[in-house]
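Dear support,

We are seeing what looks like truncated structure output for some complexes. This example has two components. We would appreciate it if you could run it in full and send us the complete token output so we can diff it against ours.
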Amino acid sequence: MASVSLSEAEKVYIMHGVQEDLRVDGRGCEDYRCVEVETDVVSNTSGSARVRLGHTDILVGVKAEMGTPRLERPDEGYLEFFVDCSANATPEFEGRGGDDLGMEIASTLCRIFNNRSSVDLKSLCISPREHCWVLYVDVLLLECGGNLFDAISIAVKAALFNTRIPKVRVLEDEEGSEDIELSDDPYDCMQLSVENVPCIVTLCKIGCRHVVDATLQEEACSLASLLVSVTSKGVVTCMRKVGKGSLDPESIFEMMETGKRVGKVLHTSLQDVLRKEESLGPERPKVGFLG
Amino acid sequence: MAMEMRLPVARKPLSEALGRDTKKHLVVPGDTITTDTGFMRGHGTYMGEEKLIASVAGSVERVNKLICVKALKTRYNGEVGDIVVGRITERRRSAEDELAMRGFLQEGDLISAEVQAVFSDGAVSLHTRSLKYGKLGQGVLVQVSPSLVKRQKTHFHDLPCGASVILGNNGFIWIYPTPEHKDEDAGGFVANLEPVSLADREVISRLRNCVVSLVTQRMMLYDTSILYCYEASLPHQIKDILKPEVM
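Here is the complete output from our reference environment:
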């Protein structure tokens, strides 16, 4: 993860601020920075989204391709995650420096989506044991400004909401072999239901309290963080601890409760924004990267 | 708890937003500024094929017969007498250094210093020979582009709202609580690690957000501009200052 070096005095200042619920930029311990979400920014993907959270900039593209189902789950499709930490984000990611972080994020995303209820995988099946849709989710880290996991999970949810998978029909030929027919209308697609897609809330422990949405400076002061993946109904799907420090079991419980509370609000805001964007229709002004 | 998500809005061009009448003449490297040879060439320009050509990307400034191009974003160029705020990243390792300096300054510490000399390759030599320079204690650092810090007589300002600010010429702005004892300035080498009061913290956070919003709007930073921005921001909550509609 990108890190900044801070002097002792600066770290003490940040820690005391967190104790008093007034962080360096005036936020409280449970406040997020302003988030900007835009979907459908990449034209040759099935779905894409770009999220800006303070100085953190994430771009996610989803491509739907046909493949064979996994052996142990023959009537379901699946998702594949790949995370690319671009060297633009921070000089530490130059060359192969970003690969470790990329793999860590990809494996976390896999764990979160590795259950039946996050995404309806049965809807991705075309014909059991033969064909299914595979969603390749590619995450690109454009800028690193703290709180990567939260921004990535918001972007993945927005991209999945924006994904349009073409409808296919399976035809039986006379010889018994199957033919897959794509409908002629390019707008005849099915949408995935993202009701149960979870979002990650990162809680960093600074001093005796924990903060949500830490900046790079705050992450440098924190020795341990807890990643909690929460659905919109407040159900925790996965939890992970990162960092060198140790966490008390009581504080883990408190952090989990905070994560659930914050997660529910996060989901409602995200759903509102995505619905608002969708209601603007295809003629909405696209800001993209040059706005 | 607050959580705000929004759709992005396209940025408005600055001259429209601020109602400036004169449109700036913007150039990129290689652009011809003028073919009139009667002008003297200043920084950011060079003479080629009887034309004055820009060598940096920025706006053209004309003072009588002198034409220069002021770059929008530059790396800091040191001048003798500039005040800078810097962070220690590496240090020379020798026996005397270990014994003497390590007690005072560690890697990662912030110091304020004055530029003593500039070498030909652009490296600068700094000194902290006055008590007003030295190690910086508790406070907030904001990093901005060096071109936005206005050259003034003094860069150490004690603002009436209750905090002090050091505007480093290299773009590092340090905001800290005003020390109570006037004889102990921001310098010295022993940092004060006592907790800062909540009122001071609010002032410092508000100032930090004001500086960031001025930088986003590409306005010059000096003590009165920061103060006006602070006063204009008082009706809003501290965390709301960075929202586009408030700016």
